[in-house]
Every structure is written in C-alpha cells, then in structure tokens.
Amino acid sequence: MKWRDEIIRALTQLGGEAALDEIYTKVKGNTDKEIPTTFRAVIRNALEVNSSDSENFSDKEDVFYSVHGKGKGVWGIRNFKVTEDNMDTTQDDGGFSEGRQNLKKHLCRERNHELIRVAKERHKVENNGSLPCSICKMTFSGKYGVLGDGFIEAHHIKPVSQMKDGEKTKIEDLIMVCSNCHSMLHRRKPWPTKEQIYSILFNSED
Ligand SMILES: [Zn+2]
Ligand SMILES: [Zn+2]
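^ thats the input. predicted complex w/ zinc ion below
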C-alpha cells in the first residue's frame, strides 16, 4: 500500500478531515510498512503532491485538500462521502421528532466537507474573518478561544423529504449556525426557520 493510500485509509477512519498529528498516529497504527525515520516528512510530502492546495502538487491526482489553508496542518479527502454507516452522531438523534433515517440522511448532506468548506469560506469573507452563528451571532473562537477557531456547523434548510432524488446540495441551501441553534432548528417538525429561532432569542422581552 502506498503512503497516499495509507493516508486515505486514515482520513476515512477519522471522518474525512484531521490534523497532521492525528494522521501520523492513525497511519502508524494501521500500516504494516516500516516506519522511516523521516516518517512525518514522508506523510506530509504524500499529502502535498496529491493536493492542488499545495505548491508541491504533482498534477497527477488531486486527492487531498488543506482545510484551513496552507500551513495549518489540517487535511481532508476530496469527495469524502459521509454515509449513514461511517458518520458519528454526537446528538441524541433518537430524541429528534423527524425520524432517525431522515435525520441521518439530512446530516449526511450537512457533512459534505468540500461544499461546507466553500460555504464557510464565503461566510467568513462576509463577516470580516469571523464565523458567527447566523442566528445568535456567537462565535466559537470568542467563547472557546483557540479551540473554537474555525468551528461552525452547517445546516441544510431543505428537509430531505423536499429534495428530489439526486438533487444536489447548493451553497445557498446551507446556513452557518452554532450547535445550540442547530439543535433547535431540528427540534420540531416542520423545522422552525432561522428567523423564528432568532425571534425566540431576541424578542422575548415584550
Ligand atoms: Zn447560535
Ligand atoms: Zn441541520
């Protein structure tokens, strides 16, 4: 197995995106190959020659992308498909009223990493470099410091039931929200709109 394929396997196990340190550890744990003394450089190189985000791209296969831009050390696999089997649900999805299967389908669409990357980038530009929740305006970096840098969730405003077979997710269908507002958006069916959640939060005094 090539190092490139070892990285693909590791990133798949890590949910499609991961920091270099996690990738190193996973690859080491998986591989039967001998670990060279220059292991870290070898892995970094395998990422870079297979990524058009890098100056070292070899022009052969564009497999990886750099998650937060150059030099941040977080990598993802292009076209990584979150499936209902490999997704991890941190939510108590049994508690959602919309049904487990539909919710899972919905969450799969919300974890289309590349599309989200573009949507996040756009949101960031529109907000002068920060990533506020579109509803309550909190930013994870404001609340959690460095740990929260770059974190925001994407919510797809169209329910699965309203999408035609094979219909693709568009950037316009995604809104960037914090985890609390996101959970509230899924709390009830039909889903509340972002305006409804906003008015619960900010118009409750009168
Ligand atoms: Zn929020
Ligand atoms: Zn959602």
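The CA atoms of residues 156 and 173 lie 6 Å apart.
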